[in-house]
Amino acid sequence: MTICTSERHNEVQRAPELFSYLQTLVDAGAGMGRFILTGSQQFGLTESITQSLAGRIGFLHLLPFSLTETRDLWASKSLETVLWQGFYPPLLDRGIPPHVWFSDYLTTYVERDVRLTLNIRDLAAFHRFVLMCAARTGQLLNLSAMAADCGITQNTAKAWLAGVREARELVLGNLRGPLFETLVVAEFMKFKRNHLRPEELYFWRDSAGHEIDLLVEAGDRLLAVECKAGQTVARDWFGALEKFGRLAEHMQGLLVMGGDQGQPRSEFPVVSWREIGAMMEKRFGVQHD
User: Fold this and answer.
1) What's the Cα-to-Cα distance from 29 to each of 21, 24, 35, 256, rounded to whole Å?
2) What is the separation, in whole angstroms, between the first and last Cα of the chain?
3) 176-283 domain in CATH 2.120.10.70?
4) 17-27 and 42-52 are packed helices; what angle lies between their axes, rounded to 10 degrees?
5) Which of 254, 256, 258 has its CA nearest to residue 241?
6) DSSP states of the chain
7) How far is 177 from 182, CA to CA, in rounded Å?
8) In angstroms, how far apart are the furthest CA atoms of the chain?
9) How buried is residue 273: exposed, middle or buried, by Cβ count under 10 Å (0-12/13-18/19+)?
10) Structure pTM?
11) pLDDT tens, position by position, 103-145
12) β-pairing, 211-218 with 201-205?
């Protein structure tokens, strides 16, 4: 087996001449799995593969670590620390402050690769757009509002988009709830991809504003998931699940909370964010060798 990257460019999408060469070797036979191509930017990579290696290659999407994979690291840490730090490897093994690493990531990857691919000329406006997308995590996408907001004054932009620099800022901050919802949805996405299963993730919202944070197809049933960042279960947390349960057949409900202890309720079980991985393995029938 050979791992192919470009010494000159470090990532295979920056060495397009390599693909036609590999096509010749692959077509010559000698078995599958001979080469692993690595790259962090799928735009150029997908284009090159489509032209030269279509039907000859399989994809593995490597997302940031999951809660299950890093369980021991979070055992003694708070939810706020998890939301603040995230799951990218350099943040877990190098001790880099998240606000520093993400700033560098935005500059070296998003501004470089995405800007060049999409031919973006107004880099300042694009930077504001990316930050506004981050600030709206866990909310409905409104492209008209996003476009209008990109023209706001510099002082307003600074006031709205101040970065979170410490975990304690999330204890009572406005971003705590949306970030928690994003964490839960991301864990379901990682689980599906890591187990080579179709994602099939949705949400539900009616005209009156009632909504379910996440809907997951699970065999012949639909799993409705509500995300609540609070640490103490409240009765009104179950209103959306109860309403949706009256509308949908073959539905199962689940509530994921920000506390450390869940509750085995008969109708809608409550699961701690620390138990998401174990819960999904049980629900989707994953077995370990």
Assistant:
1) 14, 9, 12, 49
2) 24
3) no
4) 40
5) 254
6) -EEE--TTTSSGGG-THHHHHHHHHHHT-S-S--EEE--S-HHHHHHHHHHHTTTS------PSPPTTTTHHHHTTS-HHHHHHH-S-HHHHHS---HHHHHHHHIIIIIIIIIHHHHT---HHHHHHHHHHHHHTTTS---HHHHHHHTTS-HHHHHHH-PPP-SGGGGSS-TTHHHHHHHHHHHHHHHHHHHTT----EEEEE-TTS-EEEEEEEETTEEEEEEEE--SS--GGGGHHHHHHHHH-SSEEEEEEESSS--B--SSS-EEEGGGHHHHHHHHTT----
7) 9
8) 65
9) buried
10) 0.81
11) 888 887 766 766 666 666 777 777 777 888 888 888 887 777 7
12) antiparallel
Give residue 10's pLDDT: 64
Query: Which of 260, 81, 230 has its CA nearest to residue 168?
Result: 81
From-to residues of CATH 3.40.1350.10 in the chain: 176-283
pLDDT the model gives residue 135: 81
Integer angstrom CA distances of residue 117 from 18, 42, 51, 62, 132 = 20, 11, 17, 21, 20
